[in-house]
Amino acid sequence: MTCENHSIEIKHINENTCFSRKIILIIGTIKDPCDHQVIEYSYNSSDIVKQSIFNGNFKILLRLTEDTTSTLKIKYCQSEVDVSLLHKSIDPVIYDVKPLYIVPKNHDGKFQCDDNAENYADIAAKKIDLMMELSQCVFSTKIIESEKEEWSFSLEKCEIFNSDLDVEDVRTMDQFELYDKIAAELIDKFGDEALKRRKFVGFMSCTRFLGLDPDEYYNYVNIKNKTQASPSLSTGFLALLGNGSFYALPNDLDEVIEAFQNKKIINVAKLLDDSNYRRTYGGCFATFLGSLIHEMGHIFDLGHTNSGLMGTDIDYVHRFFLCQYFTEIMPKRNISNCQQMIKDENVLSNRITKIKKNGIYMEKYHEQKNNDLTFFEPNCLITLMNHKWFSQNANEDEINFDEAERTVDSKNSLLVLVEIRESENKNSILRKFWDLRNDKINQFQLPNDTILENVTIFAMNGNGVTLRKHVNTK
Ligand SMILES: [Zn+2]
Ligand SMILES: [Zn+2]
């Protein structure tokens, strides 16, 4: 090995890749590295964040310039490579995603944060835009890693939405009531028709954490009991979240890596700690972004899975962006905390987690060595790629389920996926799925051994049309 020919490899991106999103994470490897620990680069914009090489691996986070080819030159030791990155906006846009910062009456739009931090509604909107773009980057990168193709959705800028609800009323509502009221306001303002083509991700401006008292035990039940206006719910056209973690979020792309690495301890007398017991600003940012991706997954018709971003693995998103993994001790989550579409007064109604306590701390700890632990299970990726919001396919047709024949029928286009999900009171966790993309069929008969007792059948076709049917056959 000589220093003239280290080879620099970029994963998942080639000269034909065309991006419609702006934020890209370049993931690469130096084959046969020497003791050089830095890579140099030149790029036609300052929107780029580089990290040191770790074990021959590097990651570069950057923002593309709209509708242009950008060139990134990467130099390691004496080797050099040019990467062309083409951005092309989605055109025409039929379906899009619009983030909203929802400010109730008699609220100033400020979020809870450290005293010296910049804090007003426009800063919150800026953070939201960045979080949405980072989420988009995770969705698309996970699809490209698995399917070798780039798919993304059209993302609008965050708008400040002035709600007619009074802040004091909002803070006494449970998340289901709040969700219904906000959804009704959006329908009123935008109309039913528009909502067939637009999905909203709303962030309440008035989340309030009352602080733990010095003698109060630090656990999530106590934290949750002292948190107001902090929903974590999504259905069809709206995902609704709180802003209790905004203090831990960066404002700009160049602060993202540092913010994930921020080990500053959260003062739980004042600020909400939703970090799955890590109690750090960086942990809080990671959990927030993971939760956001999870809730957005629901508006893209994903159900729950046992693992991954739609399951228990929402706390590790920092590992996707960071080059050097560090291990953290945290408990495994219990999926039952996410009550998508469930209206049961008796269950915990918050994202903040109920923890399984039986010696499971170490399980995740051991998995953390070489893996980013940030993934979607395969059925989720099939749904995303074929989803109208990713394909901009406006063709309408129908999928039906014949209960007697146990067949799923797609009218005009081929079926791509059939799933059996547990009934909703079990949080619609995936039980089984069939990837039908290679079968080229319009009709699928469920195998005889498929038990259809209190389950939801979810199916999707190539036009991105979906069927969601509750079945309860003994
Ligand atoms: Zn060298
Ligand atoms: Zn969920």
**Which percent range fits the helix content?**
10-25%
Low-pLDDT windows of residues: 339-363
Number of separate structural domains: 3
How many E-type strands?
23
Cα-based radius of gyration, to the nearest Å = 23 Å
Tell me which oligomeric state these chains represent.
single chain
What's the helix count? 10
List the ions, cofactors and other small molecules found in this model. Answer: zinc ion
Instruction: Calculate the mean pLDDT score and round it.
Output: 89
* Approximate shape: globular
Q: How would you characterize the largest beta sheet?
A: 6 strands, mixed
Strand content: 25-35%
Produce a short descriptive summary:
The chain is of the alpha+beta class and 474 residues long.
